[in-house]
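pasting for the record
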Amino acid sequence: MTPSDRNILLVVHARRDDTVQAAQRIISAVRGAGATPVVAADDRPELAERLPLDGVRTLGLEVDLDDIELAIVLGGDGTILRAAEMVRGGTAPILGINMGHVGFLAEIERDDMDDAVRRVIARDYQVEERLALAVRVLDSDDRIIFETWALNEATVEKASRERMLEVVMEVDGRPLSSFGCDGVVIASPTGSTAYNFSAGGPVVWPTVEAIAVVPLSAHALFARPLVVSPDAVVAIEVLERTSGSGILWCDGRRSHELPPGARVMVRRSSRPVRLARLHPAAFTDRLVRKFRLPVTGWRGSVGGAS
């Protein structure tokens, strides 16, 4: 493949000046290396108002998704989730450059951006596959009415603030518990540091394949966070006695109303999300850095555990 055949997708939070300036630098670097920068059709009009897009092609109109080599994402976790949705049908890995605050999904910070682009052009990176969730909604007659996926989490929530959601939870075809609650979070290891984390769920190392289930403000004696097999099927059914409806949210981006009797089934997706990694590092170090955890007093590694 010659450089001119290489298409690099750029996904940008276009309403921030620093991000747009960074996008201009990356476009220049990609073009300077003989590759082709590509932007999404939805992003192009807004970007065109703020920077020149000569020589920049459009995803879906001039470049097929299957022809994208890699997606560079400028923004926080929300922009990275949008990029994951954008490349879902292809094989392009995602490289996140954090332009936000915590940016847990991002691989690098903005100060390392120029080196990151150089390494992308040189194909000097590794691809890490992350477990994603397949989500299916059935109605009270067990007919499929909605299907989607999630990288971070699928959340069944109450639709009305003043009403409680009545649900029954099932794991691998067996009922576990029924209770009233504000909702239930079903998270991947990647999503364990997102909504799951805020809800008091466990942090799951990315190398551990598992699914976390966390009830939200449940009125029940048994409402602890659960960690189940990555091959388990978790189902949350909105009970008929619920007054009002619920709502399903996936990654905070895709939603579907859940009337009484609706059933949400979540399992491992057959298609993982691919992340580009430049600096293979211990997940522990990422936690410490992103959450600014205190480690004062650590004596240093004394050797492997027996």
